[in-house]
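Example protein as discussed:

>
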Amino acid sequence: EPDPGPAGGGAKGGYLFTVKSNQKDLQQLIAWALDTYPPHPALWIWTLSIAPMPPSVSGFAGSTYALRMHRQVIHKDSGQVSEETDHAITSLVRTPQDFYALWRGHWQVENRLHHPRDTVFGEDASRSRKGAAGLMYFRDVLINLLHLHNLSPLRSIRYFSANPNELYQLLCPS
């Protein structure tokens, strides 16, 4: 079935279909692939629960649903299981699939914004507390500037550390 894209908007040309019980060969192939190839160190299980949440109960104007996302990670090598649960409230009226896509879309933002700041600038390890917000904005501007020039932030920071004059030319073109 064509992929309607996030929250049901525009076609992307992908598909998702369920494998029925009468397709044993395909089920076995998928099971084999998930168990052995490609070897992945962990199995992630996301479960979304949805319940009605009217404003009279939540206290939030226009609220419609309460959401709970439970994530379970099973590390294949050790068998260790870690779990996290997050909650949300929404005024949106969507299908469960749309809510799931929106929730997972949050991680795209996290991965696009926070992850580069942490891997390139070591933000999580930083002990700086005074001016932390200013540093965060500066890092965002620098990462976005690098993206505008189609440059990888991590490779660019390493390169510009050795060639600061070229960074200056990028920041202050003549």
About this structure: The helical segments are 24-36, 55-58, 96-121, 132-148, 153-162, 164-171. The chain is about 45% helix and 20% strand.
